[in-house]
Structures are given as structure tokens and as C-alpha cells.
Amino acid sequence: MAFPRRAIPPRLAAAAAAIALVGLSAACTNEPSPPPGPVELAWREVTLPPPPEGTRNVLAGTAFCDDHWFIVGGHDLVGTDGADPDEEWLGTDDTMDPAAWTSRDGQTWTALPVAAHSYYGVRSLLWGAACRDGTLVALGGKVGGAHGNPRMASYHPVRAADGTEVLTEVDASFELFGGPKATNVGRITAGPPGYLIVGNRSAGAAVWLSPTGEAFEIIEGAPVLSDSPERATWAADAAYHDGEWIVVGAVVLTGRPDRDPAAWRSSDGRTWTAMTADATPDYDQLSLVASVAGSLTAIGTHGPTFRAWRLEPDGWRATGRFGSTHVEPRDGQLTSAIPVDLAAAGDHLVAVVKAGWTYELWLSADAGNSWRPVVSPTDMPADGDQRVAITGIPGGGEAPDQVLLVVDDGHTAHAYVTSVTAMS
């Protein structure tokens, strides 16, 4: 279904005007032009299969490859008083079970069978997804144990006796993703060599590798990628580009309080080489990365704004700034401003950022050099158990470049598709 025009959030309108003023200040001898307004896309909602009785669909992650669309999340019990149970994020209650959905055209969706068998697996939320050759691999977890740490697992399709592919929890030791050295398990990505997960351990940045997604091996303490006496490292996201895995994140130099953007490259995921990246005295880092227009673009925070960096032959070069990382407290509470997801579709990028108490969408049609705010298809609060995820679907022939967006406000969940081809 199509959506009527929504009121443009004041923060987006103000951000668009502020970006325009920054550009005008650098070209004050020219006649000023009207600032570009927020982009209004033709969002249409897609319908997922209904959840089991007494539950609701929880949507947390997306992926696309080889004409296969995927959404991952879970089913959560709905309270008898009509309210949802508390603490849904990462399956922190005992009412969640993992779930996933797939489509071949983005319009007609079916539920994927999911088989979890461990104590924490059957109570998990699936939140990470990557695919290649039409095969989905997912990450899920539930907070638990004496210390309340996430109990993570990966999921891989296994063919049942009747020929049905079942997304199945992979048995693994607790210390593969957790244990005394654990810090976090981050995003998962796919490439020709297989799958790579980024995360961090007590020794700094780390990765997990798998050629098929059936079982992962951790690479921690790797020289260059991990901590050294000169700096601490942090891995945030990864992509496969030009025959190499590229991990993006940040470093904190010894004696300095702020982060600087950082990236590393490896042909095998085991031996790593540091890459150069433009840095400033501000707190800045690379948080997300995507392949677009023949190279990679990363986004992250850069002092008072979000920013893009473009991979050039001589390293990562800072490009377009957008939005604001300034957040006002609310009712005595503090929150953050961070990039959340990044979708590449053809030559287009769509970023999701948590701008304090709301999620925002931003569009670039030039690989990150310039950005415009996007009017979302629904309200996207970010003050609790809400989540937003996005993935790109490149066009071909007469098919346009598209994005798949999922929005979960903690009580209801929706999935939307829109074309971005005309937004150039």
C-alpha cells in the first residue's frame, strides 16, 4: 500500500537547512540557492505471515542476495493485558523465540522454519543476517547467565528429511562468542570466501570466519588488528572488496581520550594490514561500511555530525557530513547518537542513524559525498526497545534500485519497500 504525505519532522528540516548553510559558507560569493528539502519516497508496506497466536512478529535484521530477501527477528508473547512483555531487546526475557522470513520479490513473504535447541537458543532474538548464493546465515542471542552477558549463537540452513531447509542453531562452545575474553559480537557480512563476523575481545578487535556459515572460527589477538602498547582497537563492521576483507572501526591512541577512524585489510581474514584514514581532533570513528559505485563508503560519527569516508587508492578520505550528533537529555536521561545501519542499492546509499531519541534516514546518490534527509514511512522513536534495519536491493534492466526497511517500535513491527532510483 502507498502512504500519504507525512509531516516532515522538525529535526530533519533543520538538519537539511544546516547542511545547506555549511555549503553556502564555503561559497559565499555565489548567489545562495534554496536548501534541498527532505526526500519523500514512495514507501509501500509489505505483509509478513501472521505470528503464532498470542505472539507478535519482532523484526530486527535484513539481508538480500541473489534475488532472495530475508528478514530475521523473533516471536514475542503479547501480555494478557494487551501490553507487550518488558525487556525484549536481544531476547532478555523468556517470552522470545527466533524467527525468520523470506521472499523472492519483496512482496510475497513466507516464514522460514527455525530450529533452536539450546536453553538460550529457544529464547533468542535473531538480529544479524548475511547471505550469499541465496543462503542465509544469522546471528542471535539472549542475555543470561550469572553476569547477564549475551549468549550468542549462529544459525545455518540444514536440509530436513522432507527436503525443507531449516535455519538451525549451530552447536558451539560458550567461549567461541562469550567467556572471560568477550566484549561484544558485532555485525556479520558475506563475500566470495564465505562469512565474516566482526567483534571485540579483551585483546581488541577480532573476527570470526567461516567458509560456509556452518561453523565459525575466532581470530583474536591477531597482530595489527588487535591491541598494542600504542593503541587500543575496535572493530565495528566489514565488507569484502577487491579480493580482500575490509574491517572498519576505530583506534584509541595511548594517552588520548578520543577515538580516531581506523580500518584494516586482509586477503584471508587472518593476517591484517592497517589502512590510513582521515582523522581530526574530534571524536570520530568508522561504524558501518557498504560497497557502492565501485568502491567502499563508510559512515560514522565525526564530532558534532555524522560523516562518510570513501575508500580511495591511498586510504580512507573524509567526504560528506550529515545530521547532528548533539543530543539533549530527556527527563534526566541520556542517550546516544550513532549510525545503526547502511544500505547500498546501485549507486545509492541509505543510512539509518540513531539521532538521540529518534531514528533518522539519510540518502546519498553520490557515494556519500552529499546527503539529504528522508521522510520515514512511520514514526521511528529510539527511546527504548525499538529497532530499525535496512538493506539494499540493486536494480537491473527495468527494475529500480530499492531498499527494504524494517521498523519495530517495541509493540508493533512493519516492513517497507521503496525505489530509490529516481533520487539522483
Give a nutshell description of this structure.
This protein is mainly beta. 5% of the residues lie in helices and 49% in strands. It is globular and about 55 Å long.
Strand order of the largest sheet: 6-10-9-8-7
Helical fraction equals: under 10%
**Broad structural category:** mainly beta
Give the biggest beta sheet.
Answer: 5 strands, mixed
The best one-word shape is globular
What proportion of the residues form beta strands (DSSP E)?
A: over 45%
DSSP strand tally:
29
Report the total helices. 2
Task: Summarize model confidence as the mean pLDDT.
Answer: 89
Report the radius of gyration as a whole number of Å: 21 Å
Distance between the termini: 24 Å
Low-pLDDT parts are 1-5, 17-32, 80-89
In words, what does this structure look like?
This protein has 424 residues and is mainly β. 5% of the residues lie in helices and 49% in strands. It contains 2 helices and 29 strands. It has a 5-stranded mixed β-sheet, with no helix packed on it. The chain has a 4-stranded antiparallel β-sheet with strand order 1-29-28-27, with no helix packed on it. Strand 15 and strand 16 (244-253) form a beta hairpin. The longest helix has 16 residues, at 10-25. It is globular, with a radius of gyration of 21 Å. The two termini are 24 Å apart. Mean pLDDT is 89; it is low at 1-5, 17-32 and 80-89.
